[in-house]
Amino acid sequence: MTGAKPSTVGVLHPGAMGAAVAVQLSSRGHTVLWCSQGRSEQSRDRAVRAGLHEVGALPELLARCDAVLSVCPPATAFDVAQSVAEIGYDGVYVDANAIAPETVGGLAAVLTGAGITVVDGAIIGPPPDAAHTARLYLAGATEHVGFLAGLFAGSRLEPVGLGEAIGRASALKMAFASFQKASRVLAAVAHSLADEHDVTDALLGEAERMSGRILAERDYLPSVAARAWRWEPEMREIARTLEAAGLPAELAEAASAVLARWSADRDLAELSPEAVLARLRIP
């Protein structure tokens, strides 16, 4: 198989991300199919706007496709894979959903048990379009990752190989999303607390002064650990403040518990990032 020639690819299913991925495939000359069976009118509308070709049932889609991309809500990823395993498929199945490495491992076991080739995928970034790019990380056999990379070569969805071990792409997605999603939730809690005390404008002012590169600042982690002895009780006070305002305090309590793992590192800023992170694995 080679991604240089036009291929036929199935997308399960055309949500906002799936439809955007399909457009990128179409832009490279590939034929993209979707299965309308059991799908909503919203899915149909997205598929039409994306220029996807409709098939009425999953067996027909699988029979026609060189590769199938599963891009669906995490809660349905296993069911989608199970439905493909029950029918059988001789192309490459890519699970590109936000699921744990353990989940994709179980899913891959079901598919490979049915003789189906599996590649672990993870999309990071917004739905790709003329104004936005994203990355498709891929982990699996070199031949199949190369084929898939060829499908997207030159598109707004950049393929990136992560080696052959199934679960590596999903692990990256979990690591990145653990920060990205949680930070958005934390922002909502912070704004709710500021609103409660009528200090929102001041909060926004401080936010404008913050660094936007927290996740990239790995070398700063020893400084965090060295100050954990002060930050841990501060997080407990934050939890009290949130509870008093009728807001969820669980994230602050969890942060306090993490900081407690660095309690022995008081003022030890010379620790390496690796040593600091190793502390988090100690129960």
Describe the model.
There is one protein chain. The chain has 283 residues and is α/β, with parallel strands linked by helices. It has 2 domains: 8-164, Rossmann fold (3-Layer(aba) Sandwich), CATH 3.40.50.720; 173-279. Helix content is 51%, strand content 14%. It has an 8-stranded mixed β-sheet with strand order 3-2-1-4-5-6-7-8, with helices on both faces. α1 links the parallel β1 and β2 (31-35). α1 (16-27) runs parallel beside α2. It is elongated. The model has no long low-confidence stretch (mean pLDDT 95).
What does the secondary structure layout of this molecule look like, with pairings?
Elements: E1 8-12, H1 16-27, E2 31-35, H2 41-50, E3 53-55, H3 58-64, E4 67-70, H4 77-87, E5 92-95, H5 101-113, E6 117-124, E7 134-139, H6 142-152, E8 157-161, H7 168-196, H8 200-208, H9 221-226, H10 228-244, H11 250-260, H12 273-279
Parallel strand pairs: 1-2, 1-4, 2-3, 4-5, 5-6, 7-8
Antiparallel strand pairs: 6-7
Helix pairs in contact: 1-2, 4-5, 10-11
Give the tally of β-strands.
8
Structural class by SSE content: alpha/beta
> What is the count of distinct domains?
2
What are the low-pLDDT stretches, counting only 5+ consecutive residues below 50?
A: none
Helix count from the secondary structure assignment: 12
CA-based gyration radius? 23 Å
- SSE string, helices as H and strands as E: EHEHEHEHEHEEHEHHHHHH
Strand order of the largest sheet: 3-2-1-4-5-6-7-8
And the CATH topology of the largest domain? Answer: Rossmann fold
Which outline best applies?
Answer: elongated
How much helical structure, as a percent, in the residues?
A: 40-55%
